[in-house]
Amino acid sequence: MQRYLFEYKILPTGETSEFSHVAASEEEARQSIKERVADLEFVEPEEVEIGTLLRTLDASKQYYECEGCT
């Protein structure tokens, strides 16, 4: 699995930002991320434009534990 970091733009406002998603392929990540960004930004999926892929990171064997969980 890979973590794909994309740049995105909110079309009505022109705001740009970054968001990452873990997926098996870049195409799968690109398809899934639009819905997630729309939920995060409180807009419709049609108002989100996924831009360039900024970075790919290895997401396998990554383990994060919250401070309160230990």
Structure description:
It contains one helix and three strands; from the N terminus they run ββαβ. It is of the alpha+beta class and 70 residues long. The chain has one domain (1-56). The protein has a three-stranded antiparallel sheet with strand order 2-1-3, covered by helices on one side. The mean pLDDT is 89.
List the defining traits of the structure above.
70 residues, 41% strand, three-stranded antiparallel β-sheet, 23% helix, globular, alpha+beta, 1 helix
Low-confidence stretches: none
Number of domains: 1
| Structure summary, number of beta strands | 3
> What's the helix-strand series?
EEHE
Percent helix, as a range, is: 10-25%
Largest sheet, strands/sense/barrel:
3 strands, antiparallel
Q: Give the strand content.
A: 35-45%
Mean pLDDT: 89
Q: Provide the structure class.
A: alpha+beta
Q: Nearest-angstrom radius of gyration? A: 14 Å
The tally of helices reads: 1
Strand adjacency order, main sheet:
2-1-3
What would you call the shape?
globular
First and last CA, distance: 26 Å
Protein name: DUF3906 domain-containing protein
